[in-house]
Queue: 2 jobs
Job 1
Amino acid sequence: MTTLTRRKPVYSVAQSAPHQILVCKACKHKGADCAPGHALMKKLRAAIAAAGMAEDFEVSGTACLAGCVPDHGGPCVLGWRASAKATWLFGDIDPGQPIDDLVEFSRLYAAREDGWLSGRDCPPRLCDNTLARIPAAMIVTREGPVQ
């Protein structure tokens, strides 16, 4: 009888801060790392730190977030997540553009207990590029809800 070993999935990203911003760093359609994703991740880390939010936000790269348009070749996909909060996914984010709106969204997201914002609350560029707003997962067992 063989023992099965559990491997950490390639898309698994440990979270060490209360909030996490995930940046797609793998161009699955190109079969290579995503240079624009890596550049955006570095730029966003610096901006979050400069805004005084480094303790509240971790900026991490992750495997393909499946929200890009393969033929575009540059724009990135980003996600915001936190325990007991809605998860947000934005696409077509150009790493060459100013990232003030990404930092502003981070402030808004952190300030909401449940992470739920309406489209009109988002910075305009993100409102136009929203791919998904996913409610926080609520797991219910016989003993009651588990978050």
Job 2
Amino acid sequence: MLIGEVAQRSGVSARMLRHYDRLGLVSPTGRTSGGYREYSDEDIRRLFHVESLRTLGLSLDEARRALDEPGFAPADLVGDLIRLTRQRIAAEQELLTKLERVDASVPAAWSDVLRMVTLLRGLESEFGARRQQAILSHDDSATLPVDALAAAVLAEDDLNVAGALQWSLARTPGHGVAALEAGLDSPDVVVRRRAVTAIASVPTADASAALRRVLGDADDTTRDRAALALGSRGSVDAVPLLLAMIFEGRRDVEAAEVLGQLTEVSTSAEDIVTALQDAFDGTDANSVRLRITQALAEIPGNAAHEALTRLTAADDRTIAATATAILATRRRTGPAQKG
């Protein structure tokens, strides 16, 4: 076949066929009776092999080597092509995400688009100060990209920048809780911890609902942060975990303080004291008993006062002395409240 017919049947332009010929990649090896160069069946097969290899991302030189060099192994090259393709896909996905975030801000003019791109680029900076500046300088709360801010919070390890991000989210409708909640399902425990911390700063019912999901998390720190936040909001759902924090010595002072607050708004002081006493009687570990004694200092009312009075006679001198000191402080600060 002559070049024009080959171009028509193969879909490869005559110009590209001539380029292949100059490179020695695919050249017509036959001649017509009139002396014109003609593509043989073998030349056509080689052309289709070249085009097939190009669809995999091979360059023309790589395609030539693959066809002509017996020792040109495909494994390494294909592996490199896979890696490069994944990088291109990731870059395209990143661009798509950025475009979607710009679109979500409903820009009315190109100036709005440029402001949004400036913010998004600032969030991507490797320098914390620049990330913080980009956040604080975006003064239009109506165009803040909630998803981008939430994603940045979940990835941010600079506490100052994280605080600025949370401040920005607080200015958006819904405070970004729905977007942050996705972080609670992350397999990365650090991301889950960041999500809980950010959600805990939002004083809304949907934020409390999100925090309740975390009370069964496998990570102690994640659970504890959720329990402290919920307890501070008056949620009795946090009580079992707050008690466990005291027994196990995880932020036990904070847990006791939150339990004391709960007894004033939503749960019975007697129930808390009973749970603490049962745990005291159920362990021989003086370290646990001492934490329980100290926790009773935060519980108002007669029930805690009576429990502490009994503990002044405890066999362990440290526990007895601690209970005595707590009672002395209570007497100085005022009468025990009724539990």
